[in-house]
Amino acid sequence: MELKLNLANTVFSTGSIITLFYFGNGLNSGQHLCDLEISLPRGLIPRHSSAVVKDNWTDLYPGTSFKVTNCVGNLLKSIDNNPAAKYLEENKKLMSIGSKETEVFVKIKKPNSTKVERFKVTAGGGGWGAKADIIALSPEAKLVKGSEIQFFMVTSEDRYLPNHNDDEVAQFTNAFTFTNSYEELVTMRYR
Question: Where do the structural domains in the chain lie, given as residue ranges?
């Protein structure tokens, strides 16, 4: 199983494009790394294991997905033949918050694929000019016409993990857990 984690650009704080730390009992624990590869002994993780992604995302259109009808690179131009930015500008749940701390994310499923990709909305809307109807996603997004898209938000209250009790921590028993960001937790279960 291969796991990819998006890392933040840290060039202005660490001098490196990205920063990755490894903490463990080994000799290299706590070192600043540029990459990390872990090889687990064959048979350690049963074949029926699965990766589970848990997030604190609030669905802006619960249970509804839309189709990308026009896009270029990481830019969404239209969804279901409507201006893409309309889906954010006209969402009452998102607009009623009025906080600049709220972040918006999308889940994208390309045609003929079961893989769901997740990206942050970096810009969009504004109501005027040639780019008023466009939504820009994270630079690594490579959009495809016909993909399914869903919209989510993360408020500042949702962003930070609350104190956990023992029952909540128990869910990570027999699992490798990776925190990608405050908003997303990736767990590979091997029960």
Answer: 1-39, 58-159
